[in-house]
Amino acid sequence: MPNDHPTAVPLSGFFRDTLLDQCGATLLETSWQKNVIVDDCRRLLASFMHDTPATVGIKGLQVGTGLDAWDVTPPAAPVPGTAALTDPHPYLVPPGSLAIDFLDATSTPTATPTNRIQIVATLAPGVPSWPDGNHATSTLREFGLVASLGGTDVLVNYRIHTAIAKDPTSTLVRTIWLTF
């Protein structure tokens, strides 16, 4: 039997960051950059189609400090097999701090289901509350969306990025687009 089945269309993800000072002025605005859709996202989608119990969509956004060494020598690009942030104690931005919308063909939020979603995470002043016992600074270098697959938390996507020194008075607005 010939192997003539269609090839999979790759899932894709992009993000951009906007860092605001306490008065709302823009301190940093990045261009759109790719993030890696990890293998567990594909398993999550299959689990939805199979109606697997205890499978839940996006439950939050983990942010972490990553490694200080990344500031000097950037790490290799993340791979789809990535299963966790490097930071062993990431901060979870809860669902209440996320705005999740479908996007239409013009990238405008819509209530009509499409194959694209936008997740906007707002890390208000004092979030995360670092430094703490696990973090010497509040510098952010990595993130990943989290879902639940059969009751176990898994990453949906992952990205290592240029260090963002988020002070206690600044707000970080992270916008993530996922296309399925």
What does this structure look like?
- By secondary structure, this protein is mainly β.
- The protein has one domain.
- It contains one helix and twelve strands; from the N terminus they run βββαβββββββββ.
- Strands 1, 2, 3, 4, 5, 6, 7, 8, 9, 10, 11 and 12 form a twelve-stranded antiparallel beta sheet that branches.
- A hairpin with a 2-residue loop joins strand 9 and strand 10.
- The longest helix has 12 residues.
- The protein starts with 11 loop residues before the first strand and ends with a strand.
Q: If helices are DSSP runs of H or I spanning 4 or more residues, what is the number of helices? A: 1
Uncertain residue ranges: none
Helical content, roughly?
A: under 10%
Q: Biggest sheet: strands, sense, closure?
A: 12 strands, antiparallel
